[in-house]
Amino acid sequence: MKLFQIEEPDGSPADPNAPGAAVGIDVSGPVAEVAVAIGGNAAVLADRDGFEVDLTVPPVEAAISEWQALIERARLRAERSLARPVTHAVVVASGSAGERVQRAAAEVQLVLLRIVAPDQIADVEPRAMAAAILAEDLAPRVAAP
Protein backbone atom coordinates (compact mmCIF):
# COMPACT_ATOMS: atom_id res chain seq x y z
CA MET A 1 0.00 0.00 0.00
CA LYS A 2 1.32 3.40 -0.90
CA LEU A 3 0.20 6.43 1.05
CA PHE A 4 0.31 9.99 -0.16
CA GLN A 5 -0.91 13.32 1.03
CA ILE A 6 -2.70 15.95 -1.01
CA GLU A 7 -2.45 19.54 0.13
CA GLU A 8 -4.23 22.66 -0.98
CA PRO A 9 -2.17 24.66 -3.49
CA ASP A 10 -2.28 27.92 -1.57
CA GLY A 11 1.37 28.65 -2.29
CA SER A 12 2.41 28.92 1.35
CA PRO A 13 5.51 26.96 2.34
CA ALA A 14 5.31 24.18 4.90
CA ASP A 15 6.38 25.13 8.40
CA PRO A 16 9.92 23.76 8.85
CA ASN A 17 9.44 23.77 12.63
CA ALA A 18 6.27 21.66 12.53
CA PRO A 19 6.59 18.09 13.77
CA GLY A 20 6.88 15.41 11.13
CA ALA A 21 5.05 12.12 10.98
CA ALA A 22 4.87 9.69 13.89
CA VAL A 23 5.33 5.99 13.16
CA GLY A 24 5.31 2.67 14.94
CA ILE A 25 8.44 0.52 14.85
CA ASP A 26 8.57 -3.08 16.06
CA VAL A 27 12.07 -4.33 16.91
CA SER A 28 10.92 -7.32 18.96
CA GLY A 29 11.44 -9.86 16.17
CA PRO A 30 14.35 -10.80 13.91
CA VAL A 31 13.38 -8.12 11.35
CA ALA A 32 11.96 -4.72 12.30
CA GLU A 33 8.63 -3.55 10.90
CA VAL A 34 7.52 0.04 10.40
CA ALA A 35 3.91 1.22 10.23
CA VAL A 36 1.94 4.44 10.09
CA ALA A 37 -1.59 5.24 11.17
CA ILE A 38 -3.91 7.86 9.75
CA GLY A 39 -7.26 8.37 11.38
CA GLY A 40 -6.78 5.22 13.47
CA ASN A 41 -6.20 3.03 10.41
CA ALA A 42 -2.71 1.53 10.33
CA ALA A 43 -0.63 0.07 7.52
CA VAL A 44 2.76 -1.60 7.50
CA LEU A 45 5.20 0.25 5.27
CA ALA A 46 7.29 -1.54 2.65
CA ASP A 47 10.15 -0.47 0.44
CA ARG A 48 9.75 0.16 -3.28
CA ASP A 49 11.51 -2.25 -5.61
CA GLY A 50 15.14 -1.27 -5.94
CA PHE A 51 15.11 0.80 -2.74
CA GLU A 52 15.09 -1.97 -0.13
CA VAL A 53 16.65 -1.30 3.26
CA ASP A 54 17.81 -4.04 5.61
CA LEU A 55 15.87 -3.93 8.88
CA THR A 56 17.54 -6.92 10.53
CA VAL A 57 17.43 -6.37 14.29
CA PRO A 58 20.90 -6.59 15.85
CA PRO A 59 21.58 -8.67 18.97
CA VAL A 60 20.77 -6.86 22.21
CA GLU A 61 24.46 -6.73 23.10
CA ALA A 62 25.38 -5.12 19.76
CA ALA A 63 27.03 -1.71 19.74
CA ILE A 64 24.83 1.36 19.87
CA SER A 65 26.03 2.21 16.36
CA GLU A 66 24.28 -0.92 15.03
CA TRP A 67 21.05 0.03 16.79
CA GLN A 68 21.43 3.58 15.52
CA ALA A 69 21.79 2.27 11.96
CA LEU A 70 18.62 0.19 12.39
CA ILE A 71 16.63 3.19 13.63
CA GLU A 72 17.95 5.33 10.77
CA ARG A 73 16.97 2.69 8.20
CA ALA A 74 13.49 2.32 9.75
CA ARG A 75 13.07 6.09 9.55
CA LEU A 76 14.32 6.05 5.94
CA ARG A 77 11.71 3.44 4.98
CA ALA A 78 8.98 5.55 6.56
CA GLU A 79 10.13 8.83 5.01
CA ARG A 80 10.38 7.30 1.55
CA SER A 81 6.92 5.74 1.86
CA LEU A 82 5.27 8.85 3.27
CA ALA A 83 7.28 11.44 1.32
CA ARG A 84 7.63 13.55 4.45
CA PRO A 85 9.91 13.80 7.48
CA VAL A 86 9.46 11.40 10.39
CA THR A 87 10.23 12.94 13.77
CA HIS A 88 8.40 10.78 16.32
CA ALA A 89 7.91 7.08 17.02
CA VAL A 90 6.48 4.50 19.36
CA VAL A 91 8.74 1.47 19.49
CA VAL A 92 7.91 -2.11 20.46
CA ALA A 93 10.98 -3.53 22.19
CA SER A 94 11.70 -5.84 25.07
CA GLY A 95 13.92 -5.28 28.11
CA SER A 96 17.42 -4.09 27.41
CA ALA A 97 16.66 -3.71 23.68
CA GLY A 98 14.43 -0.81 24.72
CA GLU A 99 17.39 0.86 26.39
CA ARG A 100 19.45 0.45 23.21
CA VAL A 101 16.64 1.86 21.07
CA GLN A 102 16.27 4.83 23.38
CA ARG A 103 19.97 5.70 23.14
CA ALA A 104 20.03 5.11 19.37
CA ALA A 105 16.94 7.26 18.78
CA ALA A 106 18.48 10.11 20.76
CA GLU A 107 21.55 9.94 18.51
CA VAL A 108 19.45 10.38 15.35
CA GLN A 109 17.07 12.96 16.87
CA LEU A 110 14.01 10.72 16.65
CA VAL A 111 11.65 11.55 19.51
CA LEU A 112 10.44 8.40 21.22
CA LEU A 113 6.89 8.91 22.38
CA ARG A 114 6.87 5.57 24.19
CA ILE A 115 8.59 2.20 24.32
CA VAL A 116 6.08 -0.64 24.61
CA ALA A 117 6.91 -4.20 25.69
CA PRO A 118 5.75 -6.89 23.24
CA ASP A 119 3.58 -8.56 25.89
CA GLN A 120 1.61 -5.32 26.31
CA ILE A 121 0.24 -5.73 22.77
CA ALA A 122 0.66 -9.47 22.32
CA ASP A 123 -2.80 -9.97 20.81
CA VAL A 124 -2.21 -7.53 17.93
CA GLU A 125 -0.33 -8.58 14.81
CA PRO A 126 1.62 -6.94 13.36
CA ARG A 127 2.70 -5.09 16.49
CA ALA A 128 4.06 -2.20 14.44
CA MET A 129 0.49 -1.31 13.49
CA ALA A 130 -0.58 -1.09 17.14
CA ALA A 131 2.48 1.05 17.83
CA ALA A 132 1.59 3.30 14.88
CA ILE A 133 -1.93 3.86 16.19
CA LEU A 134 -0.49 4.76 19.61
CA ALA A 135 2.06 7.05 17.94
CA GLU A 136 -0.72 8.86 16.10
CA ASP A 137 -2.54 9.41 19.40
CA LEU A 138 0.58 10.62 21.25
CA ALA A 139 2.12 12.75 18.49
CA PRO A 140 2.19 16.52 18.90
CA ARG A 141 -0.50 18.32 16.96
CA VAL A 142 0.06 21.18 14.58
CA ALA A 143 -2.00 24.21 15.55
CA ALA A 144 -4.51 25.31 12.94
CA PRO A 145 -3.70 28.69 11.31
Features of the shown structure:
145 residues; alpha/beta; Nucleotidyltransferase, domain 5; five-stranded mixed β-sheet; 3 helices; 30% helix
How does this structure look, described?
With 145 residues, this protein is of the alpha/beta class. The chain has helices spanning 64-82, 95-107, 127-138; strands at 21-26, 33-38, 41-44, 86-92, 111-116. It has a single domain, classed as ATPase, nucleotide binding domain (Nucleotidyltransferase, domain 5), CATH 3.30.420. The chain contains three helices and five strands, in the order βββαβαβα. It has a five-stranded mixed β-sheet. Helix 1 (64-82) crosses helix 2 (95-107). The longest helix is centred in the middle third of the chain and has 19 residues, at 64-82. The radius of gyration is 15 Å and the shape is globular. It starts with 20 loop residues before the first strand and ends in a 7-residue tail after the last helix.
Provide a brief overview of the structure.
The chain is of the alpha/beta class.
Largest sheet: 5 strands, mixed
Percent helix, as a range, is 25-40%
Structural class: alpha/beta
- Spatial shape: globular
Radius of gyration: 15 Å
The strands making up the biggest β-sheet line up spatially as: 3-2-1-4-5
CATH topology label:
Nucleotidyltransferase, domain 5
Query: Roughly what is the average pLDDT, rounded to an integer?
Result: 88
**Architecture (CATH level 2) name:** 2-Layer Sandwich
DSSP, total strands: 5
How many H/I helical runs?
Answer: 3
